[in-house]
Amino acid sequence: MKITFLGGGNMAAALIGGLVKQGFKAADVQAVELSAEGRAKLESQFGVRAVESLDEQALACDVLVLAVKPQQLKAAVAPIAGRLTTQVVVSIAAGLRLVDIGRWLGDYHTLVRAMPNTPALIGAGITGLFADASVSAAGRAAAEQVLAAVGSTVWVAEEAQIDGVTAVSGSGPAYVFHFIECLQAAGESLGFDEATARKLAIDTVLGAAKLAADSDEAPGVLRERVTSKGGTTAAALASFAADGFPAIVTRAVAAAEARGRELGEQLGRD
Ligand SMILES: NC(=O)C1=CN([C@@H]2O[C@H](COP(=O)(O)OP(=O)(O)OC[C@H]3O[C@@H](n4cnc5c(N)ncnc54)[C@H](O)[C@@H]3O)[C@@H](O)[C@H]2O)C=CC1
Ligand SMILES: O=C(O)[C@@H]1CCC=N1
Fold first, then answer.
1. Per the confidence metrics, is the pTM higher than 0.80?
2. Residues with Cβ within 6 A of ligand 2?
3. Atom of ligand 1 nearest to the CA of 96
4. Is 181 inside a domain boundary?
5. Where are the beta strands (DSSP E) in 52-200?
6. How many domains does the chain have?
7. pLDDT tens series, the chain, 270 aa
8. Domain span at residue 252?
9. CATH code: domain of residue 52
10. Domain closes at, from 126, 157, 188
């Protein structure tokens, strides 16, 4: 399977890195990237062909992944409008709706919306997928194969749910990194040096996530097991509750989801 990325920035690099690590042949992966520095990085890091514009060789692919910023996508696909034949086009752009992307591509509807996340770089991503009704089973399978190479995948029943996936898991790594930053800073405030506080914070999140992933129990049950009555964890959790932590998370995720919808509506007017 030949895969071309239109846009070779952070997320494309995470996906390309993941694909190559998972055994995809670098010769079957290409990237179209405006920045010379970006192209040089992709070529040297992953050994893939990186070009400035979508030439015939780059267009001759089975899956074309649109990996530019939502605000850049309409202009980026303009040169290929009406030139697509059988390629499965997978947009990973936040918010943008298939109906608008299809229009910008010159009424082309072999389209899949996917929302991956950056842990794809280490094969630990999670991607939500939604396909236009006209995409064949083989087309869906091709799109899924690309994303499944870098982590797990879930199909959603309605396109609007991709904005929810974006809010929970697309943006989610940033929330977890932020929590790690805060836990590290809290450790430093107790007198640990930076390296020690960082290790305590990261290894805790890593271990807890692994335990939650491996366990049949709900995260709430695992939380209760850490929480001795009248103990230290109970004191911390009472403080979290008093500060409204669950509502803070719910509001933040809702803000991300609303922003996705807003981006789709705003940019789709073009
Ligand atoms: N960063 C993340 O964690 C995630 C990002 N996304 C989505 O992935 C897309 C890309 O995001 P990032 O990689 O973070 O952005 P980025 O800015 O790092 O990458 C976009 C790249 O596209 C290039 N580009 C822009 N116009 C171009 C054109 N006409 N032809 C060729 N290259 C062009 C830019 O030079 C840039 O390197 C966005 O739509 C975003 O919503 C999706 C999931 C997670
Ligand atoms: O922040 C963003 O808009 C993108 C989408 C998901 C992660 N990064």
1. yes
2. 94, 166, 170-171
3. 39
4. yes
5. 63-66, 88-91, 111-115, 125-131, 151-155
6. 2
7. 999 999 999 999 999 998 998 899 999 999 999 999 999 999 999 999 999 999 999 999 999 999 999 999 999 999 999 999 999 999 999 999 999 999 999 999 999 999 999 999 899 999 999 999 999 999 999 999 999 989 999 999 999 999 999 999 999 999 999 999 999 999 999 999 999 999 999 999 999 999 999 999 999 999 999 999 999 999 999 999 999 999 999 999 999 999 999 999 999 988
8. 172-259
9. 3.40.50.720
10. 157
